[in-house]
Amino acid sequence: METLHNEIKALIIEALNLEDIQVEDIETEAPLFGDGLGLDSIDALELGLALKKQYNIVIDADDTKTREHFASVASLANYITENKA
Amino acid sequence: MSEYRPCFLIPCYNHGNTVEAVLASLRQFQLPFVLVDDGSESATKQVLEQLGQASDVTLVTLAENQGKGGAVMAGLRQAYAQGFSHAIQIDADGQHDLETVPRLLALSQEQPQSLISGQPVYDESVPKSRLYGRYATHIWVWIETLSLDIKDSMCGFRAYPLAQTVQLLNRCKIGKRMDFDIEILVRMYWAGTDIRFIPTRVIYPEGGISHFDALWDNVKISAMHTRLFFGMLPRIPKLLARKFKSQNKPQQTHWSTTKERGTILGIKTLLWIYRLLGRRAFSLMLKPVIGYYHLTGKQARTASEEFLAHLTQYADSQNLELPDNLSSYRHQLSFGETMLDKLAAWQGDFKPDNLTIHGQEHFERLAEGKQGMLLLGSHLGNLELCRALSRQNTDIKINALVFTQHAEQFNNVMEAINPEAGVNLIQVQSLGPSTAILLKQKLDDGECVVVVGDRTSATQEERVVWADFLGQPAPFPQGPFLLAAALRAPVFLLFGLRDDSRSEPHFNVYFEPFRDPLTLPRKDREQALTQVVGDYASRLEHYTLKAPMQWYNFYNFWQLTGQHNDK
């Protein structure tokens, strides 16, 4: 699981052009949006596209659930594991 | 429904001669009566009072004459209050064939949720003028319900399920005179009530009084149809969804074929009027209807007037010339014509000759390269038309991104005209990551996606960017612009405007490069977003000044209300 966590962190940094941030700087359980890493809604869209490209996962159209899956690196990892096509 | 408890409901206005016989012949069914005296003259009043003495009769006396509808409504409420489940309405003048009563009762008991109505089979005694009048009404009702389900709407011989009916009476105001019989049926149909018919003979008895005041009642009925016609327009999706739903139910073959024909006929009737009489005649017919709507529909009128005030004030301050004759009435008329344009476009009535495309060279370059693009549209003019024409005349696939559940049903209307209409309609709840993924796929396949940029999100209204529009800041949604940035596809603006100066329908489609790609760098994202939205607003303003009557955002555009509808 930790490999996947690091993979996702690297993906976030690359997809969103987070130049000043390293994999170590992102906490697995910390919120990605708002207070934690401080990502915004355009980042959510870009991250969604990157995740789809790399893991070929389908994201539920239900907005509230999407928000839960995108909460942290840990929740994204769980979602990817469950939905890997 | 717990128990089937019917009663007879007889509205009575000066039918003293006939009501007693009607009552007597109905006694064989051993059901209680609710008699309504609709402010009758003293002779009839006496007869009714005497009849009211009987233990099985409840007499409701209206001090002043209300009209047949008023009397029936009073009777329906009384019957419901007394705990009856159904009311069997019968006219007091003896024109209904009482031999049909057992069948009406049996069907009503078997289908307690349904409204059962007689469907008249006339004998020789019917005056011809009445018969022709009925045909006109039939056609109206078919249009209003977009179906042939209502086979007859004027027969006052009916079994009403009281719970649903009284609920409807509490909710809306229904005509009190001869318009009642028709209006209640259409409104019950709209409310989702199943309506069934049984054939019945109607006799015009000698000496019978029918209170059909030719002039006044026809005026009332015309006003009612106008009201119902406009009630139908927003209900088109629901009415058609109902058709499609009922077709999916297992049914006898011949019924389902009839129903399918009914759906198409409803819409085709509208188009047929337009085709047969031509566009000018249709526009002419539209005028009184829109006029009525204009006078009674306060919300849309207010919004239109606000828009026109902003527009003229801005044009004055900038020394710009506006087209003549701007009025909120003409504004609404223009909207009516656009509805027709959409139907006609999907029907294939417009040819490439009807269209001038400005900026086609950009389009072709991209189409050749098989590169997908994002088209930013608006509620100015008619985008549906662009989609229809591209579908019919080019290989370019234009997908439209639409919100709300209604969109899918709205699409059913277009699909009934042209099955291709639904192929590229993408319906989403919100602009989230899942939407981005879906659209990315389309763009990668070399297709176009149209997103409108002028309506704030119904679910996330606070996510807006304020930009100047006609001299005042207005809220624009963030979503479409963020989406465009994430998708990194070339972004074009798309406007489809009708040229009202020509007698033949003609449309100008404007296609202009906007951003390629649209970027919102992290460092000054907010500023970049404000700039992008500002540029969009300024182009929207440019085209709005070209065709102000085709501005179809009928709400206060410069304010957040929390109640925006996306369709």
TrEMBL record, chain A:
One Pfam family assigned to this protein is PP-binding
Which InterPro entries is this protein grouped with? ACP-like_sf, PP-bd_ACP
- Enumerate the spans annotated as Carrier domain: 2-84
List the Gene3D superfamilies hit by this protein, alphabetically.
ACP-like (1.10.1200.10)
Q: What is this protein called?
A: Phosphopantetheine-binding protein
Task: Name the source organism.
Answer: Shewanella corallii
* Upper lineage: Bacteria, Pseudomonadati, Pseudomonadota, Gammaproteobacteria, Alteromonadales
UniProtKB/TrEMBL annotation, chain B:
Q: Which InterPro entries match?
A: Glyco_trans_2-like, LipA_acyltrans, Nucleotide-diphossugar_trans
Q: Where in the cell is it found?
A: Cell inner membrane
Q: Which Gene3D superfamilies match?
A: Spore Coat Polysaccharide Biosynthesis Protein SpsA, Chain A (3.90.550.10)
Q: Which UniProt keywords apply?
A: Acyltransferase, Cell inner membrane, Cell membrane, Membrane, Transferase
Q: Does the keyword Membrane belong to this entry?
A: yes
Q: Please indicate if the UniProt record lists Transferase as a keyword.
A: yes
Q: Which PANTHER family match?
A: DOLICHYL-PHOSPHATE BETA-GLUCOSYLTRANSFERASE, GLYCOSYL TRANSFERASE
Provide the protein name: Glycosyltransferase family 2 protein
The residue ranges of the Glycosyltransferase 2-like domain are: 8-129
